[in-house]
Structure formats: C-alpha cells, structure tokens
Amino acid sequence: MLEQLNSIDQKAFFFVNSDLSNSFFDWLMPLMRYPAFWAPLYLFLIIFFIKEYKIKGLYLIAFLLITFAIADFVSASIIKEYFRRLRPCNDPALMGLVKVRLSRCSGGFSFISSHASNHFAIATFLISTFYQRWKWVLPVAFFWAAIICFAQVYVGVHYPFDVFCGGIFGIVVGYSVSKLRKSLVPIDGIN
Q1: Pfam families under this entry (predicted)?
Q2: Prior bond to 171 cis, omega within 30?
Q3: Are the C-beta atoms of residues 130 and 137 closer than 8 Å to each other?
Q4: In the chain, what are the domain boundaries?
C-alpha cells in the first residue's frame, strides 16, 4: 500500500516537475518560494489591520503571527523530524531525474511542506476571519496558498503529498487559531 502511494506521488511529482515545464513557470515558480516575493502582501495586511481595526488590529496581527508560528514550528521541527522524508532533489534514487529550479536544493526534510502549512494556515485564518465581510477572500487566499504549494513541487523540493498534507495541516491550524481568536477577541463586522 505504501509503495503504491509512493509510486503515485512520484508520478504526480514528475508530471508537475517535468511534464509541465515551460519558460514562464521556470521564471515564476522559484520566485514564489522566496519571502521577498510574497512578503509585501503580508506587510499590506498588517498595515490594513492597524488602519482598519486600530487596537483590535494588533490582536489580529498577534493571532496571525501565532497561526504562522504554530504551523511553522510543528511542521518544520516536529513532523519533518519525525518522518525524515528526503526531498526529491536530495533523493539519491532520483539523481539526474529531478529538475531543480533553484541555485541549490533546500536542506532538511520534505514531509510535510512548511511553505504549504504556513500559507494555508494564514489563508484559512484570513478566510475564517473575513469571509462574512468579503466573500472573495476564500478563492483569493486559497489560490495564493495553492500557487505557493505548486511552486514547491515545480522547483523540485517537495512531492505533491508533502504539500497536500502540509496544506491540510495548515487549514487545521488556521481554523483552530481563528476560532480561538473569535472567542477571545470578537471584532465587530468580521466574525
């Protein structure tokens, strides 16, 4: 059973990493991995929270940081260390087959993707917080997180199962912290 799942995961990986190769993705997907590319969006959110919600905006920022911290710490320091799955770009069995679209393959382990965990946690927190006010936040936030996940596979540092499970974990974290925030710090117009 595990061998079958691993085989499906590898086939899906090579479909994204090799079969979908094109010059536009070769340019864009490596950028999607780097904080300098997506940090302006999160900086905008921080400024927006403070401007729109004043003191309660600081609470939103604090809970957003808690969301990120939990997703990042648990995925990187606990789950990855427990499973210790090699990244595709570091797997000796796949040497020469993986198209690594970075200057070097990332260190550490592959399962689960911390990028997926972090961005889906943030996306879910934002959706749970703002969906009643702005319905568009759901497709936009999930699309953003999904593109970042796709990039992890495309550049060769994660298998699809890594980002899928990271995304699921992130959704659980984001939803849980959002529920906690709603019970501790209700904010008019966004609960």
Answers
A1: PAP2
A2: no
A3: yes
A4: 35-184
